[in-house]
Amino acid sequence: MTTPRLPGWLLYPSSVLTLLGAALGHRSHVDAPRPPPPLPTSEGAVLSQASPIDPAVVVKVRPRRGDAAGTAFSVADSGVWLTARHVVEHCARAAIMVNETEGVEAKVRLAPRGEAAVLITADGAPPLPLATGPLRRGELGYEAGYPRGRPGEVASRLLGRGMLYLRGRGHRDVPVLIWAEVGRTEGLRGALRGMSGAPALDGRGRVVGVAVAESPRRGRLYTTTPEAMISALTAARAHRMPGVGMPITPDNYGLAADDLRRSLRIAPVVCVAR
Predict the structure, then answer these.
(1) Domain positions in the chain
(2) Cα–Cα distance for residue pair 205/73, rounded to 1 Å
């Protein structure tokens, strides 16, 4: 008994469809959708009144052109935040921004070592949980913050641990997590200035590191290690709180990041003159 053979011209289309299905099933590039447009001024005023931060501690802040800016995130609703050291290292005064013109003054506490810094404010926002379990090479991470002063996020894949040589005052090597960028907010182009200090979140919405550097040509992102975050909080004698994470996937990380920014769990931080 012989098996019927299909004509050769039928095999090529079926092979192409099979390969296409496999490629779509294993996406290596996961861009987030374009962020929503800014709210009208009147709507923004209404939303700012619902801020988790007490309006009594909010003051007018007018950052000048050229002032340092980055991202910070809450780790305790009493007013404890983490950011990147270089964002606030030379600040005369720092502020967590509630909206474009108002912020909460923050005390800067730098750890003796490491690239994470702690900010203390008079009031805070709901905390993000910090990851404590083992990291796995190849897992996805999501950095959400304010690149170029605008809401944006990046998806990346963990390559492993390494050492990063930082120039500037006190040249030093610091341990970091190395990530390969695999997607970003639609329309976000170029270097990610302002993303420094943003949390790198795992699929359960837990923070595994603080964004500290990037290599745009290589498509690499660098964050602190989980141990560096704990070390910075310990040195500052600041206590984190157990926050609640949310599931984050390649399909929802843009919306998840928007939710975190609206609740001020992730907020801009500026370094301004006195």
Answers:
(1) 140-263
(2) 13
| Radius of gyration of the chain from its Cα atoms, rounded to whole angstroms | 21
pTM: 0.80
Return the pLDDT at 58: 83
Positions in the chain short of pLDDT 50: 1-4, 6, 8-27, 36-49
Residue 76 tokens read as 């305790």
Tell me what pLDDT residue 14 has: 46
Beta partners for 83?
Answer: 117
Q: Is 44 helix (H, G, I), strand (E, B) or coil?
A: helix
SS3 content of the chain, % helix, strand, coil (to 5): 20, 35, 45
Distance, in Å, from the CA atom of 52 to the CA atom of 242, rounded to the nearest integer, reads 17
Please report how many Cα atoms fall inside a 13 Å half-sphere around the Cα of residue 107, on the Cβ side. 9
- In the numeric block, which tokens belong to residue 32? 């987030």
The beta strand positions in the chain, using DSSP E, are 59-60, 69-76, 80-84, 93-97, 102-110, 116-120, 140-145, 152-166, 172-184, 199-201, 207-215, 220-223, 266-272
Return the CATH superfamily for domain 140-263.
Trypsin-like serine proteases (2.40.10.10)
Residue 165 buriedness (CB in 10 A; 0-12 / 13-18 / 19+): exposed
